[in-house]
Amino acid sequence: MHEIIEKKSRFIGYAARINSENEAKHFIDEISRLHKKARHVAFAYVLPQVVKTSDAGEPRGTAGLPIYNVISNRGLQNVVVVVVRYFGGTLLGKGGLIRAYGKAAKLALDGCMEE
Fold this sequence. Notes:
Blueprint: E1 2-6, E2 9-17, H1 21-34, E3 40-47, E4 50-54, H2 64-73, E5 79-86, H3 93-114
Antiparallel strand pairs: 1-2, 2-5, 3-4, 3-5
């Protein structure tokens, strides 16, 4: 788990290695249960021949795609990244959301790779 704060919004990133879509969905569900009061639980996962992203209610392309781009730029497969957002009351705009979700995903993957 890795957390960043952007204009009072909390972005908490999680990453895990996976071997199936069921494992990815289970991991996403676990994080969602941990953060029931969160406004958004965005994710991306990559398996051989499967790519899935979700903006989780954020404007299209501002959450799931930046998370996926971090995974893709590293050439990774068999990984899921989930970023939870607790809204802090200030709108970040599309650029701010893209940067924040991408940064949280990067930190989560950095932490996962160290383990």
